[in-house]
Amino acid sequence: MYNSLKYILLLFLASLSFVSCNQKQGDKIKVGFSQAMTTDDWRKQMNSAIKIEASLRPEVELKISDANNNITKQIEDIEKFITDKVDVIIVSPIQSKPLTAVVEKSIKAGIPVLVVDRKIEGENYTAYLGADNIEIGRIAARYIISHSKGSGKIIEITGASGSSPAYERSLGFEQIINENKRYKVENTVHGDWEGESVKAPLKAILLQNPDVEYIFAHNDRMALSAWETARTLGLEKKIKFIGVDGLNTLNGGIELVKAEVLDGTILYPTGGNEALKLALKIYNKEAIAKNNILNTIVIDKNNAEIIENQMDKVDQQQAVIESQQGAIKVQEKEYASQNNLVRLLSFFLVIILSLTIYSIYSTISISRKKKQLERINQTVIDQNNEIQEMAQIAERSNTAKLNFFTGLSHEFKTPITLIMSYVESLIENEKIKGTTLIDEVKLIHKNSNRLLRLINQLLDFRKIEEQKFTLRASNTKIYDFTNEVMTNFKGEAARRNIDFQLTCKNKNLELFIDRGLMDKVYFNLLSNAFKFTPDNGKITISIVENQDNTVKISFKDSGIGIPENELANVFNPFFRASNNNKNSSGIGLHLSKEFVLLHQGTIELKSKQGSEFVITLLKGNSHLQPSEMINKAENINKTPNLISDTLDIETDLNETNVISESEKHTLLVIEDNIDLVTFLKAKLSGEYVVHTSDGSDAVEKAMEIVPDIIICDINLVDKDGYEISKELKKDLRSSHIPIIILTAQSDKESTLKGLQSGVDQYLTKPFSLSILKQSISGLLFNREKLRYYYTNNIYRVEPESKFGNQEQSFITKMNDIITTNVEDPKFSVEDLADKLGVSRVQLYRKVKAIIGINISDHINNVKLEKAAELLKSNNMNISEIAYSLGFSSPNYFSTAFKNKFGISPKEYKSSL
Ligand code: FRU
């Protein structure tokens, strides 16, 4: 592109120079004319003649310099011509002597000089052109002699001294006059070629000696002035006047002759046109004479008219020529402007053509480049698609791997739960308590705990990566909280003689923290501190309130510390300090930082002597979203975690309540982990009748047994726990059974999914047996409360009531059927079960589960409620009511009525 522009520019410059080249004049013959002055008509005519001649020759470039009768200026003008290197110089010198040197200089410089009219001294010029002024003087004298009739007294008026015509005219005149004794130049007036120079001296002469026959002036201007002076003295008629020049102009010699002012004038031709012709000859190096003499003639009253006519004709012709010249000039101008226009158009045409060619070229090259780019683009798109596909494959494989490891981690939790539950039982076992075995059991417990923590860290890492953590912060007394966590490490501190301190000035200081997450942060920082602090070392936690509404919690140890250049990396996942040769997963500190960031806090590490981790948290809760906060109570119940459970919670594990089999509630455990099933069976059989299913026949078994409560795992072979729960909760026969989901999946989505499928409780592994037991009895108690409500509100259970669930609609439907058939003595439990679409046994169990009595008793109750209603209406007697409601005898009816309401039907009726 840049190159193309360069070419266009070059083209443009070329076109421009083409135009300007054509405009440039060809080499011309430069002629410089140094004119003495231009004040009189003779000089004007001379200039005009030379100009006309030059204008007829286009090859000539004429430059006229007017010296204004100033000799210095004339010398300068000529020198300028020499510097400008004109081809020929024409000079009409003001005076002879002063101009001689500069003419010689020009000759020396190789520029030829043509001298006109007046001469210079010596012969050092190229040529001379002019009339013979000696001869003019002679002609004037001869004319006087031939025409004189009087005294023969003459006054001569000369031109300026120093100019050759004045000298030569006098010379010629006096030669002839002095030949004849009768004539005498009585007086000479020294003029300067102009009229004014004559008046005063002539007047003085004439006043002294008026007897003058002729006055010969060296030019017509001075002759006229002499005539005017004579006239002032009344002598103009007496004296005859002769002049020189013979111009055919106003007040020129010819007119003065015709007007009889002058007796005669000697023609002195300007030689303007001849001068230019001669100059060109000199330029062309043609052979010419050194002295070129112009013809002259006497003009008097005899030929003035004729000569005037001839001159007029010449003038007319000159005027024609001049006007033609003018017309030619106009045409030349037009031609020049048209020529310029044509050149300009040609120039633009060239530009347009160039641009057109360029644009065609550009279009082609752009389309080529476009195609090329399209090809590249397509390749990029293809590559991009490929990369995306590969990325997707990689992501899928990565997700699959991560899911596998996450699943595996979840799977680890169940056996650990079992191990820890058994170990906890062992710790509490009286037979072991006093023995040396207890230490080993505690060691197993401690390591299981550690393993569990590692698995939890792995799961947390995945959760943080997926940004699935939501803060559940509550107002917490940080001193108490810190102390509680420290309890877990006090044993080790004592054993290794580590000075383990907490400093905090304000023990009531409260902070909004997620206790579950902050517990993990504390645990991690303290585990590290204990790991790297040698025996007899020191670990200090200090809580300091700052002015800026923040609290700093620092964990300082006297361990090996971390090399300075690695400080910035400690919170990166999988980081392991170069001086750390202990086992470390490298995710603990990373998780700690992420958990602190969730609190809008910061965590930093200072390591000079030992390590110091400083957590900075904001006071108050304005930095937290409402969704990130929970109330205190919720938080306390939040961590039903085996790790944090103290062993004394488990004491009820060993409680052996002796309950008879028939009183026991039925429990169905849906779980495919045989160990866990065995464990649960062992731990729960004392209080419950435990049925089990590995998940393959879960729904069928639940329908068959209709247990009082179900404990169900999530990850099962056929259907997962959610599906099983959903099916059971949908089915009328099992919808009333409380379900506890027991799973290793502790994330929010799983919990939500569980709750959506209708489960009543959600416990995550590892679970605390005590909490499981508590949950079972809690749910059964709630069921009991509900049952009490149903029993006591059996007829008030309406579709829109707060129990708007499956059970409520079941009861409503069942009550409707019983009420409709209450007066049919043949209506049986089987008929009711049929109408409700359940088996007799299922009906029996469901009703028993919901309202706590058997179905026949419930039907009887409905009948008795109806009986009470009929008694109120007073339309039927007691026997009629008993039979209408299907009671076998009025007596049986009375007994049943009294059992239910405490009074006999008779008493009831009379009480109304
Ligand atoms: C013009 C003029 C003429 C005269 C000539 C002599 O300037 O004065 O009248 O003939 O010069 O050089």
TrEMBL record:
Documented EC number(s): 2.7.13.3
InterPro entries in the record: CheY-like_superfamily, HATPase_C_sf, HATPase_dom, His_kinase_dom, HisK_dim/P_dom, HisK_dim/P_sf, Homeodomain-like_sf, HTH_AraC
Domain Histidine kinase: 407-621
Residue ranges of the TM segments: 341-361
4-aspartylphosphate modifications at: 713
Cross-referenced PROSITE patterns: HIS_KIN (PS50109), HTH_ARAC_FAMILY_1 (PS00041), HTH_ARAC_FAMILY_2 (PS01124), PROKAR_LIPOPROTEIN (PS51257), RESPONSE_REGULATORY (PS50110)
GO molecular function list: ATP binding; DNA-binding transcription factor activity; phosphorelay sensor kinase activity; sequence-specific DNA binding
Catalytic activity: ATP + protein L-histidine = ADP + protein N-phospho-L-histidine
Domain called Response regulatory: residue spans: 666-780
Organism of this sequence: Flavobacterium hydrocarbonoxydans
Protein name as it appears in the record: histidine kinase
EC supergroup of this enzyme: transferase
